[in-house]
Design brief:
The chain is of the alpha+beta class and 674 residues long. The protein is 39% helix and 9% strand. Homodimer. Forms a heterotrimer with a catalytic subunit PAN2 to form the poly(A)-nuclease (PAN) deadenylation complex. Interacts (via PAM-2 motif) with poly(A)-binding protein PAB1 (via PABC domain), conferring substrate specificity of the enzyme complex. Residues 37-66 form the C3H1-type domain.
């Protein structure tokens, strides 16, 4: 191999094979430098863990924190600047960061602010307990004061009511997540309970958390079966905005979009009732049976305070359930701890089943059961969703917070007369059938819709205190007396009470008409054989005519709203036919069936109705145009329109009648069976 010499002044580095002497000296120098470097370097176990278990057992690093440490190796002997030798030290910047100082070991551990709040009851370090508090500013301390140390959550009154209960909340991570969402809903400056701090809490908090969620579930009405976790916000019922204030006095041929649909208030009311009808709950969460008799999916409707035996003498509970026979929803009223001793008493329910009145909640059947773990008597009534009692409407603390007084009266006289007419009509029907109500009491009268009341729990007292009908005249007289006491409570609340009847009558004389006073005095008079509900009906005769007139007017309003949705039903059927025909991938072994023949005309009409654009190329979203075209198509008018293809190469002039015939023909082809 030819050799060459490096020119003088060249930057090339000559590569020379090292001698054996240099190799031995190099190894010795590296070993000495490594030993000297490890003795001045701080042990990493001491920095990370605070101690080193190998100290004095062979660990060569420095364990004395008072001695300064360095990570840079000792300087090696200088090499000639003119040459780059393999023995040159590794290049390191002059501003090299030194190792961690010994003071960091005594520094308090870093804990985020939200974790401090969550673990405020946990053990604190001796050095960090006083230093951590100074990180709170005034705003943080205010939020921290809102925190419930026992519940590990913010107070229940500030937590949104869509946090639902679960069957067994034992997962601390889920609790931490629920607390975080609750705090975020409060805009509490991102104060949340972290999962790590949640794990440091005692296990006894899990029980309190479970009860906390259970209390929230009693208030919330959006709990569905087999759903454990957080549910979304309530549904938005308004599908369309309310009419604008400046749109008024339209011409007869002009209509707003709201004229094609029922009113927003009525739609919302109906949808809320449908939603309440579909509500379910996990039976095991409330210790309810999965099924009793032919009814399943029990859902509690009353709170514990409302189930006390104030009227019937026994604790009662009310549930919504679904019947397996007809699939309808019924209301079950359970009499707890009642043992039926006379089976003949069940025959009284047959007499009540014949009562069909607009102001009486119809009873379906009654049966005994042990499904609840005791002897219970269950009455089955019709279910009226979102109904409330007269007590909750006019006498509860919530109703006093939002009074609707007219001329200083808690209840207007017109509304009182409406109640009188409806209750009197129900009592008249019941007494004429040889029965007595015996439950004319504010908590047993339901308000099911707009000023529509119904007598509830009829027939229960007849079965509980069965006497074969011997005391029927006495019970009917009690009905009239209870009716009068109810009217005094409605007219005088909260100005007077039944405990001072004279003051109540004086108040009624000053605030209401003499006719109302006379009706109340007659009902409160002493019982006598000649006192009957027929006399009351005769006294309120003129008011009954007004009530009938109001009922007919409201019926006309509902029919008008129904006619709007009736027209929409026709349009929905048309849209369904469009969906069956347009863009069908294949029919009768023809992949291009929807693009040929009459179906192509239907496709162009679909584009004419829904896919129009303006002069700027923007989509035309005009509901009135859609409704007008669909109504003309459903009627099959002879008005002609021009349909243009998407490539603007073909143009067709057809009438709505011809398009309707094409749709009917195509739909018949799809409906036929070979």
């Amino acid at each position: 191999m030819a050799s060459f010499t490096i020119p003088s002044g060249s930057a090339a580095v000559p590569i020379v094979a090292p001698t054996a002497e240099k190799i031995i000296s190099k190894n010795n120098s590296n070993k000495n430098s490594a030993n000297s470097s490890s003795k001045v370097r701080t042990c990493r176990n001491l920095i990370i863990h605070g101690n080193c278990k190998y100290e004095g057992k062979g660990c060569e690093f420095n364990h004395d924190l008072n001695k300064p440490s360095t990570t840079s190796p000792p300087p090696s002997p200088e090499t000639p600047k003119s040459k780059l030798s393999v023995h040159s030290p590794v290049f390191k910047p002059s501003g090299n960061i030194s190792s961690i100082s010994p003071e960091v070991i005594n520094a308090p551990p870093f804990i985020p602010k939200q974790s401090q709040v969550a673990s405020s009851e946990g053990p604190k370090s001796e050095n960090g307990s006083s230093d951590q508090q100074q990180f709170y500013d005034r705003d943080d301390q205010q939020h921290a004061s809102m925190f419930d140390q026992q519940m590990n959550y913010f107070p229940a009154q500030t937590t949104p009511n869509y946090l639902m209960s679960t069957r067994d909340i034992t997962n601390n991570t889920f609790n931490a997540l629920a607390g975080s969402i609750a705090s975020l809903s409060l805009n509490a400056s991102n104060y949340s309970v972290s999962a790590s701090s949640s794990r440091s809490q005692p296990s006894s908090h899990n029980t309190s958390n479970a009860s906390y969620f259970s209390q929230l579930s009693q208030v919330d009405s959006l709990f569905y079966q087999n759903q454990s976790g957080l549910l979304p916000a309530p549904l938005q019922y308004h599908l369309y905005t309310s009419p604008l204030p400046h749109i008024s006095n339209l011409h007869p041929h002009q209509k707003t979009i709201h004229a094609f649909f029922m009113s927003d208030n009525l739609r919302e009311d109906l949808q809320r009732k449908n939603e309440a009808t579909l509500q379910t709950v996990n039976a095991q969460d409330y210790n309810l049976p999965e099924e009793i008799h032919v009814y399943h999916s029990l859902y509690p409707l009353e709170s514990l305070s409302e189930s006390l035996g104030k009227v019937f003498g026994y604790p009662t509970s009310v549930y919504k359930s679904v019947c397996t026979v007809d699939g309808r929803v019924y209301c079950l009223r359970r009499i707890e701890g009642y043992r039926l001793t006379n089976e003949i008493a069940m025959s009284t329910i047959e007499n009540w089943r014949r009562i069909r009145h607009a102001n009486v909640v119809s009873i379906r059947e009654a049966f005994t059961t042990k499904a609840f773990g005791d002897h219970s008597l269950v009455f089955v009534y019709d279910y009226h969703p979102l109904s409330q009692t007269l007590f909750n409407k006019h006498f509860s603390p919530q109703s006093q917070m939002h009074p609707s007084s007219v001329n200083g009266l808690a209840i207007p006289e017109k509304l009182v007369w409406s109640y009188i007419c409806q209750i009197a009509a129900a009592i008249k029907t019941i007494h004429s059938s040889g029965l007595a109500v015996r439950t004319i009491e504010p908590t047993k009268i339901l308000l099911t819709s707009k000023n529509r009341i119904r007598l509830n729990c009829c027939g229960i007292m007849d079965l509980l205190t069965y006497d074969g009908g011997k005391n029927l005249p006495h019970y009917q007289q009690e009905d009239l007396l209870s009716f009068g006491q109810l009217l005094v409570s409605l007219a005088c609340h909260p100005h007077a009470s039944n405990h001072n009847l004279q003051k109540s009558i004086d108040f009624i004389s000053r605030q209401y008409s003499p006719d109302l006073k006379n009706v109340i005095l007659y009902l409160l008079s002493n019982p006598s054989p000649v006192k009957s509900i027929d006399d009351v009906v005769a006294m309120i005769g003129p008011r009954l005519l007004h009530e009938i007139n109001s009922a007919h007017n409201y019926n006309d309003f509902l029919e008008s709203e129904l006619s709007h949705e009736l027209e929409n039903g026709r349009l929905v059927r048309l849209l369904c036919k469009f969906g069956f025909i347009n863009e069908r991938p294949e029919f009768d072994m023809d992949p291009s069936w929807s693009e040929t023949g009459d179906r192509y005309l239907i496709k162009l009409f679909r584009d004419y109705v829904f896919h129009q654009v303006d002069k700027n190329g923007y989509p035309v979203v005009d509901m009135s145009h859609v409704l007008m075209c669909l109504n003309k198509l459903d009627s099959g008018v002879d008005e002609k329109i021009m349909l243009v293809s998407r490539d603007e190469q073909s143009c067709l002039i057809v009438s709505y009648r011809e398009i309707k015939n094409c749709i009917d023909s195509a739909f018949r082809d799809l409906s036929r069976r070979k």
